Amino acid sequence: MQDLKKELIDLKKYGESVFEDKTNFEKWLKTKSKALGGITPESLLNSARGIQKVMDALGRIEHGILA
């Protein structure tokens, strides 16, 4: 459980860095994503595997790979 908490903290920092804004990142978390199969990133945050999928999606956004 502690590891999951740390991963969520890391995800939050990374997401806010990618979007350069806390509000925009939080909005993105609640928006359905084609890259994630049409679900919200937020819905994946209950497991390490899901968090990694969201991190991967953020990495693609950071590098301009939107699909």
TrEMBL record:
Domain of life: Bacteria
InterPro entries the UniProt entry points to: Xre/MbcA/ParS-like_toxin-bd (IPR024467)
Pfam family, one: Xre_MbcA_ParS_C
Ranges where the Antitoxin Xre/MbcA/ParS-like toxin-binding domain occurs: 16-64
Protein name listed in UniProt: Antitoxin Xre/MbcA/ParS-like toxin-binding domain-containing protein
Species of origin: Maribacter orientalis
